[in-house]
């Protein structure tokens, strides 16, 4: 499953940088928008870049065994309720996506509920109900992990076939910041104390217990964390494994991915391990309040577009950044060139 990824064209990047330097603006005046414009052009393989009209977000939903062990401020019954809220178009990301013309698809990979009455396509890729409590047992079996990764790859192919120019991987699952922190800790050899955050807003006592749980989980996994599939099996979940497969497949296909918060970034770390070099196709939508997210972005060499103190998940921070990427692409294509001024 680990096939290396070809980076966006260095030649086209240089061509985009030359065009940026020739815009009728003072050197560096566009700041980060100029950097994003160059990245968009390189990932599209064309200078100037095309308008970013087709952005598609997929929310991977699943429950996590650790949610029964005091790591979240909310009960796991929230997960199936939120799946229905996405379908009704009433979640935070739904509002932002409608505003910015982003399609949203929600998939149940491991929700601990039968989701009676939801459309069949929502549960078509379901791997299991819930996942193991990672400090006590593996999250998944090896077969379940591979099925989840394959599901993500299949969904990426479907979204790309539907015309996606830019993909967003969203998440929904009470307790999901715990496996995300564990995956990041295990991937980079970091202690739990540096990566564990408050998630949905837990107090000091719960944070201490959550930190200990993450460390215990990473210690339990031991040397198995040298392999990305084994890491996801021991410390991940079906939704996280699917998200990692989704992003790895997008990068292999040369379609860029806009990252969200800590869950999305943990999956991006795993995608870069499954498909070395995949991170060159990722851009960080925003900086969340979770410490593991900032640490992982630094390791991946990614600088967030927005820093709004958001921690909603769902892909919401990424979707909030979509207008800036669109603006960047349009500036590089539509601003007059100095060489054309007479």
Q: Secondary-structure element order, as H and E?
A: HHEHHEHEHHHHHEHEHH
Q: In order across it, which strands form the biggest sheet? A: 2-1-3-4-5
Mean pLDDT: 97
CATH architecture annotation of the largest domain: 3-Layer(aba) Sandwich
Estimate the helix proportion, in percent.
40-55%
Structure commentary:
It is a single chain. The chain has 342 residues and is of the alpha/beta class. It folds into two domains: 10-50 and 329-340, 5,6-Dimethylbenzimidazole Phosphoribosyltransferase, Chain: A, domain 1; 55-322, 3-Layer(aba) Sandwich (Rossmann fold). 48% of the residues lie in helices and 9% in strands. The protein is built from 13 helices and five strands. It has helices at 10-22, 32-44, 78-87, 92-100, 142-161, 177-188, 192-195, 204-221, 228-235, 238-253, 262-274, 291-300, 316-334, and strands spanning 55-62, 102-110, 166-172, 257-259, 282-284. The protein has a five-stranded parallel sheet with strand order 2-1-3-4-5, with helices on both faces. α6 packs parallel to α12 (291-300) and α11 (262-274) packs parallel to α12. It is an enzyme of class 2 (transferase). Its EC number is 2.4.2.21. Belongs to the CobT family. One of its GO terms (molecular function) is nicotinate-nucleotide-dimethylbenzimidazole phosphoribosyltransferase activity. It catalyses: 5,6-dimethylbenzimidazole + nicotinate beta-D-ribonucleotide = alpha-ribazole 5'-phosphate + nicotinate + H(+).
């Amino acid at each position: 499953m680990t096939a290396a990824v070809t980076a966006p064209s260095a030649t086209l990047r240089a061509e985009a940088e030359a065009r940026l330097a020739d815009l009728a603006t003072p050197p560096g005046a566009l700041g980060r928008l100029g950097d994003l414009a160059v990245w968009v052009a390189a990932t599209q393989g064309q200078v100037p870049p095309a308008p970013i009209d087709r952005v598609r977000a997929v929310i991977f939903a699943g429950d996590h065994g650790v949610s029964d062990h005091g790591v979240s401020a909310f009960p796991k019954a929230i997960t199936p309720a939120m799946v229905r809220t996405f379908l009704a178009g009433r979640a935070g990301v739904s509002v932002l996506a409608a505003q910015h013309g982003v399609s949203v698809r929600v998939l149940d990979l491991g929700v601990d509920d039968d989701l009676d009455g939801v459309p069949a396509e929502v549960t078509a890729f379901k791997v299991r109900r819930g996942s193991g409590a990672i400090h006590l047992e593996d999250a998944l079996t090896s077969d379940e992990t591979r099925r989840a990764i394959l599901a993500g790859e299949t969904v990426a192919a479907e979204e790309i076939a539907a015309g996606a120019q830019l993909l967003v991987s969203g998440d929904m699952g009470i307790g999901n910041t715990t496996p995300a922190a564990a995956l990041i800790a295990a991937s980079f050899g970091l202690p739990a104390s540096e990566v564990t955050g408050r998630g949905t807003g837990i107090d000091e006592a719960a944070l201490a217990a959550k930190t200990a749980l993450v460390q215990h989980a990473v210690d339990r996994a031991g040397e198995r964390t040298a392999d990305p599939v084994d890491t996801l099996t021991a410390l991940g979940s079906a939704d996280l494994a699917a998200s990692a497969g989704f992003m790895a497949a997008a990068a292999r296909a040369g379609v860029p991915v806009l990252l969200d918060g800590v869950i999305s970034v943990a999956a991006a770390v795993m995608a870069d391990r499954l498909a070395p070099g995949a991170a060159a196709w990722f851009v960080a939508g925003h900086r969340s309040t979770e410490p593991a997210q900032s640490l992982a972005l630094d390791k991946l060499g990614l600088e967030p577009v927005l820093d709004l103190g958001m921690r909603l998940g769902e892909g919401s921070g990424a979707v909030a950044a979509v207008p800036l990427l669109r603006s960047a692409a349009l500036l590089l294509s539509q601003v007059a060139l100095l060489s054309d001024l007479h």
